[in-house]
Amino acid sequence: MSLKFHLGLVCLWLLTMSWLAFPISVAVGTDPWLEWASIAWRYYQPGKGVNPTTGLHYGTLDWHYITDWDTGNYLIAILDARALNLIQDTGEWGTDYRLDKVLHYLETRKLRPSDGLPYAAYNSENGQPGTELSRQVTDVVDAGRLLVALYIVKTRRPDLAGRVSGILDRCALNCTPPQTPTSLRSVYNTAFIQGQTHSGVYEYYATLGFNQFGFDVSSSLTSWNKLENGPQVNVYGQLLPRADVTTEPFLNGILEIPNLIDDGFKTYAYRVLEAQEGRWQATGYLTAWSEGAIDVTPYYQYEWIVHTLGEQSPKVWKIVGPSQSDIDSGKTPIVYTKVAFAFHALYSTAYTRALITKLLAVTQTEYGFREGIRENTGEVIGTPTWPIQDKTNSFIIAAARYASITVPEFHYPQALILITFLVVAILVHRTSTVVKLARSRSLPEKKGPRRSLLSVSGPSGLPPTSATKTSPSSSHRSFYFDS
Fold first, then answer.
1. What is the pTM assigned to this prediction?
2. Is the peptide bond before 129 cis (omega within 30 degrees of 0)?
3. H or E element: which one contains 301?
4. Which of 7, 60, 178, 234 is the least buried, fewest Cβ under 10 Å from its Cβ?
5. Residue 46 forms beta bridges with which residues?
6. Residue 367: pLDDT band with limits 50, 70, 90
7. Predicted pLDDT of residue 5
8. CA 54, 76, 365: angle at the middle one, nearest 5?
9. Residue 225 has what pLDDT?
10. Is residue 5 one of the residues assigned to a domain?
């Protein structure tokens, strides 16, 4: 094989790998992602989505409460913003100041006197329990999500590991002597872990948080494996677990704790994207389903790709409200902004590019990104200030961080091209070698006197140039409360 052929092969290899790594015009980790993250970070400015006195953020611009799920959002957003250099460690509203405010709240907030559990939501303006709200106590998913965030805090900021442990070790029940005190860890164990198996996608994600703090969740982890290997539902050619399936917990897991989730979870995340792209191809509607705020009653919804709770048989593409009541699906399907950006960071496909191109044009505001658009009309939901919430903007910041440090995963179409390239290269090499060997064996042996190099040289005594050979080319879960 000629040197030129080998050099050409190397160049083609480099071009192929660069296309696989960056298959769209927006290079990962460069200015566009930082710009998008900085827009999302607007939400977390004091006086906008953060209370300037308590340092606690708001679940939405107009709903000044936080659940434990929301608190987890903010903790992770702070650390991701620091990783992207949107803020610095020091300063009044730097990383240290913000983390201290949230950790102090978790160290000192009131817990329910009856069972020691956190309340469902707390008022961000004073840190007090939101007892006037409809749901009074947190649940296993919100608690687990907070533990995921605290695990990330102690991993990225080892200097805060002691404070994180102290939050679980604080007294939660019977805290007045001579009573025997009970820690929050023990309360969590009794309420959420002992004798219980959590098998949904949200529950699996939450279970990983408990697992990082020493809770015995082996039965729940096994239950997830049963979901993977159990009955499946075919959604536009994608096999998904026969369980309640939506996008959000899959994206949370991969963006936030990719080192903790198993390969099966990642596989299903990609299938969830493929199912939504399949729906778009079948209906013509861009599809990015999840949970999120809406601008009509009941003001929050869950878009389930597969829904089983209360169903005699699994339903697909079903939307329900916080109370599990059906919502008019013809009126309210939303293309959620956070889903588009998260999928784009993870997979960077032509479909995810179509999603963010559509949403970027209409969802940016001085308060961060808006929730999304109605799939049938493309109309942005709400107003420029309502509903805008923490979940959307924290998701986009997490997606930007992920994109800035990670090459997007490539899946079947791109992997197939890579494999094809390698096979063709090998076949070309082998064919060329065989042809050369055959030619050498078929040529008659030349007889006669041996000629010296000088006798056949060209001008100036140099050997004559030979024709250049050519080579073939290869071408939620968390509920929304009315205040």
1. 0.80
2. no
3. strand 300-307
4. 178
5. 50
6. very high
7. 54
8. 75
9. 87
10. no
The mean pLDDT value for 450-465 works out to 36
What is the reported pLDDT for 407?
55
Q: Per the structure, how many domains does the chain have? A: 1
Residue 33 burial (CB < 10 Å; 0-12/13-18/19+)?
buried
Q: Is residue 428 part of a domain?
A: no
Would 1 be classed as within a structural domain? no
Mean pLDDT of 70-79: 98
| CATH code for the domain of 159 | 1.50.10.140
Sorted by sequence, the CB contacts under 8 Å of residue 146 that are 6+ apart come out as: 68, 69, 71, 72, 209
Find the domain containing 386 and state its range: 19-418
Cβ atoms 71, 106 nearer than 8 A: yes
Q: Percent of the chain scored above 90 by pLDDT?
A: 69
Note whether 63 and 371 are within 8 A (CB).
no
Buried b (16+ CB within 10 A) or exposed e, 126-137: ebebbeebeeee
Report yes or no on 442 lying in a domain.
Answer: no
3-state class of 187 per DSSP?
Answer: helix
- Residue 142's pLDDT is what? 97
pLDDT category, 425, cuts 50, 70, 90? Answer: low
Residue 440's pLDDT band, with cuts at 50, 70 and 90, is: low
Identify the three-state secondary structure at position 281.
helix
Angle between helices 218-229 and 263-283 (to 10 degrees): 40
Buried/exposed 194-216: b ≥16 CB within 10 Å, e otherwise: eeebbbbbbbbbbbbbbbbbebe
